């Protein structure tokens, strides 16, 4: 690991990656490789947890193509020197900011969207002029192998490399001196990464998770709200960091909400046989999810297939914040439904817990929307929709508090892997003497006028 990191450091110090044409060429090469090997990528992820080509393209590959195209189009602008105002004390002179790459970057990907969550940060890192080492999750082993094959066989390892492995390999990597670490995963592992980075003062971006609420008010368009919410919750069998973790429904519409939700699940036909659903990633996670289901509170679903690692879409009702299912992020196809009649109380309940990665508000009343958005702190979210905010790269995507540090997507990703160097440039034909010795009352008077 040390030799690999050192080789990338030497390559970075050659200044090759600082050339905009080089960055664009590498991004074009990556897009070409992905397009030529889409079938390989589809087959690998299907072997891991039965994710169909349709969902793999729409939720992973297409987002990567978008990121690459946007970076190629805008990297020259993002990298350009930017003039800023010069304050009175530094006149005559000019001030500007130069974006520069941080250096050798480590990207630790997550298993639930293995391509998108490993390669999207890599695209941002390349656009910013860094060298890249990706450590994919070892849980979806076939996607890990596919990425290693495509990248390691086509790119100079001193610039871009995939290192496979588990905890031991990740630990070894975290012992190295990187210039940037980007981690996507759980809060407990995020803390380990953060501690390792702190020992070497390495800047980090942490994309974590949390219990993201969806609030269904009495005055929303209930039918379309349920349709969008059910899609967002059971996409990828609930194994989505920004999926609605639980729903808080106004008591006036709770029963209708439950009926519509059950009907929507039936109409959606979440079946692996129809390429419309996925497996739980492994036996350990399936057992964890089973333990969260209180059989006395099942409204619909609750069945599972141990041999095939499948859990059907499940709704639990009559849930309170004290239930076991409400203690940690679910990360699976279980939707707890809580009831409320006082919006202020439910806002306080949410605020009393760690800040969520996402929050979704379903309402037609502007005052209610404004109240929730103003009072609850969360990474990002949507009004009258769920999950889809991640598709807009003009907004930074990231968490706050325990749900994450930093953001990426679009220019925000470029910034995550860049340092913005501030420069003051002064002419030599004039030099005011106010700051120089000897200090006098007259000079101090002028300094007060200039600085305030």
TrEMBL record:
Q: Which residues form the active site?
A: 207
Looking at the record, the residues that make up the Aldehyde dehydrogenase domain are: 3-421
InterPro entries in the record: Ald_DH/histidinol_DH, Ald_DH_C, Ald_DH_CS_CYS, Ald_DH_CS_GLU, Ald_DH_N, Aldehyde_DH_dom, Aldehyde_DH_NAD(P)
Pfam families under this entry?
Aldedh (PF00171)
Taxonomy, superkingdom: Bacteria
Keywords, comma-separated and alphabetical: Oxidoreductase
* Stretches that traverse the bilayer: none
Family (UniProt): Belongs to the aldehyde dehydrogenase family.
Q: What is this protein called?
A: Aldehyde dehydrogenase
Source organism per UniProt? Arenibacter arenosicollis
